[in-house]
Description:
With 186 residues, the protein is of the alpha+beta class. It has 6 helices and 7 strands. It has helices at 3-13, 18-21, 26-42, 48-58, 64-69, 110-122; strands at 76-80, 90-95, 100-105, 129-138, 145-153, 160-167, 177-184. The protein has a 7-stranded antiparallel sheet. It is globular and about 45 Å long.
Amino acid sequence: MNPWVAGLCIAALWGMTSARAQTFTPESRALDFAKNFSDHCLVQKENLPAWRAQLGRRWRKLPPAQAHAFLSGQSGDAWYVPSIENEGNMVLSMDATVTFCALFARRAVLADTEKLFQWMLQTPDPPYTAEKIEDVWAGEGRDKRHTVTYLWSRPKGPHRLWITLTTSESDMASIQALASVRLLPP
Length: 186
């Protein structure tokens, strides 16, 4: 396991009793979401085309009409994310150009999800450095959303990553968490 992902797991479980960590809890839903985003978008960030091909063979793909809703009108694919505790809760999408990877969670716990992502996005694997670009609340009532954006870059190399987390605390929202990474051109 990547040491960064192991650190994410330890940070998430820190302070939980072993009984809480082993049962279905809102915290485990946040951890599952953060870990899936890390495993499928961040860890694979420089290998997205090959990763997309593997997912196409391993995971159940959404029908094109449903996938369209998760691709913001772009062409690409979307898959149901297998999860023991949160089956049916998450969808992963990648555009056809394989420069964009996003994870959607139908249900998430806002405070726990944001705390994990704050930690994760502020501490990238070297040689990447992180800069917070945006921290905005928008909308009202059930449309109220919180978006946090980071730019990851390397001192030597063309790779720059635009990483965004958008959350909604409304139980009426169709998606309560969306994390995405976009590879920016050099």
